[in-house]
């Protein structure tokens, strides 16, 4: 069933495990993600970023999509999650990742999202508070969960690039929760987006611990989110490079550090890059194992696009020739079916170990199956 993200994070917080949140960019990925969460009896948070919505709305230049394209794509992703997850035995939330405007939030809620992030982290503090408060006021009457962000992560956040990070101030985080009424907060504590996080990154766990501790003292029942948390498995990187890829300095966060912070304050752990790497590795391997496919009329252009840009590992940049399949899940021929199978396997391989390691494995029964309407009532009674 589909639930507000808050229901999933309440269980993670109460029982002190980490809940992975995974970015989706195609119908097939959603299908595979739902299935692997079912097999491991874990609640699921599936995310669509602004660029994913634009891409699923048919935008070729998806990093600069229009609001109309995002609206269309949010509905496509919402429909995919409904089709694969509405009757699922595990609770599933669909969450907007790094939403930038109220317009975008509205498009996602209309499209069936049960949770939204509004990322005002690049704004002056008071403007971030005002924008987040506006989104909370809009989303909570629908029962939709809201995540904000405070502090700046280094690396690429959508098309906003920040070379340096500003760590979150725990005292300001308390003020932010109080002023905005948001449910969850993304903090900056040493992680960073993308595949180049630096070798042997040590995350500043004390920021998560201090923030959570202050929240408890202040009676704030909110959740903390770790962005930029891909582990960048070195075997994926090595295999991609052995097959012609050119990934340089690709390192992630050591999973043991994520397991540690999940026990002391971090509730939600965002992963996107690992899925992109696994899908790219699988597709490259298939083309090398079955060279005849490199000339396939339907999927040959995928191989050409991959070899033309060996530094790229974002499937959205090479799947143009099968965009209808990406968006709707319809499979026109057996070659396209093979690509979809590689993508689905990539999603499952990347997600399964993290569900076990973060600890949401076999915990789906601990999540209250709350509907959006029930959550809206709760917010109303509590005056938030
Ligand atoms: O946090 C950023 C996510 O990895 C989303 O990436 O904006 O390229 O879809 P994207
Ligand atoms: P990664 O780039 O580490 O996968 O981070 C994803 C993320 O934070 C999505 O919001
Ligand atoms: Zn992020």
Can you tell me about this structure?
- This protein has 384 residues and is of the alpha/beta class.
- It has helices at residues 5-14, 27-39, 50-56, 67-85, 102-111, 125-139, 170-180, 205-217, 234-242, 255-263, 273-289, 300-308, 323-328, 334-358, 372-382; strands at 19-23, 44-49, 92-99, 115-118, 145-150, 155-157, 160-162, 184-187, 223-226, 266-271.
- Helix 2 (27-39) links the parallel strand 1 (19-23) and strand 2 (44-49).
- An 8-stranded parallel barrel has the order 1-2-3-4-5-8-9-10, surrounded by 11 helices. It has a two-stranded antiparallel sheet with strand order 6-7.
- The radius of gyration is 20 Å and the shape is globular.
- It has a single domain (5-224, 248-272, 355-382), classed as Aldolase class I (TIM Barrel, Alpha-Beta Barrel), CATH 3.20.20.
- Helices cover 48% and strands 13% of the residues.
- The site of zinc ion has 5 residues, from loops.
């Amino acid at each position: 069933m589909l639930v507000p993200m808050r229901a999933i994070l309440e269980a993670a917080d109460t029982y002190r495990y980490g809940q992975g949140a995974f970015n989706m960019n195609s119908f097939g990925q959603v299908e595979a993600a739902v299935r692997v969460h079912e097999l491991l009896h874990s609640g699921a948070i599936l995310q669509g970023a602004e660029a994913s919505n634009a891409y699923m709305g048919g935008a070729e230049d998806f990093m600069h999509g229009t609001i109309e394209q995002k609206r269309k794509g949010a509905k496509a992703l919402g429909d995919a999650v409904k089709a694969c997850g509405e009757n699922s035995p595990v609770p599933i939330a669909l969450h907007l990742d790094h939403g930038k405007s109220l317009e975008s939030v509205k498009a996602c809620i209309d499209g069936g999202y049960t949770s939204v992030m509004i990322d005002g982290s690049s704004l002056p503090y008071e403007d971030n508070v005002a924008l987040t408060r506006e989104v909370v006021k809009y989303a909570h009457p629908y029962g939709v969960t809201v995540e904000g962000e405070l502090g700046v992560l280094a690396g690429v956040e959508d098309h906003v690039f920040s070379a340096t990070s500003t760590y979150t101030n725990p005292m300001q985080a308390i003020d932010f929760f109080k002023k905005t009424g948001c449910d969850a907060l993304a903090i900056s504590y040493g992680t960073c987006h993308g595949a180049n996080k630096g070798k042997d990154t040590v995350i500043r766990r004390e920021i998560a611990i201090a923030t959570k501790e202050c929240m408890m003292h202040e009676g704030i029942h909110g959740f903390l989110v770790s962005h930029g948390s891909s582990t960048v498995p070195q075997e994926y990187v090595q295999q991609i490079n052995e097959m012609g890829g050119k990934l340089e300095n690709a390192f992630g966060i050591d999973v043991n550090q994520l397991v540690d912070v999940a026990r002391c304050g971090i509730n939600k752990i965002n992963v996107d890059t690992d899925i992109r790497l696994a899908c790219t590795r699988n597709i490259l391997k298939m083309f090398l194992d079955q060279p005849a496919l490199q000339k396939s009329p339907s999927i040959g252009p995928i191989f050409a696009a991959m070899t033309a840009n060996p530094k790229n590992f974002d499937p959205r940049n090479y799947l143009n020739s099968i965009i209808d399949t990406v968006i709707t899940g319809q499979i026109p021929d057996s070659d396209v079916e093979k690509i979809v199978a590689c993508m689905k396997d990539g999603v499952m391989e990347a997600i399964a170990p993290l569900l076990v390691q973060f600890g949401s494995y076999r915990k789906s029964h601990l999540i209250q199956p709350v509907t959006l309407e029930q959550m809206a009532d709760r917010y109303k009674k509590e005056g938030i």
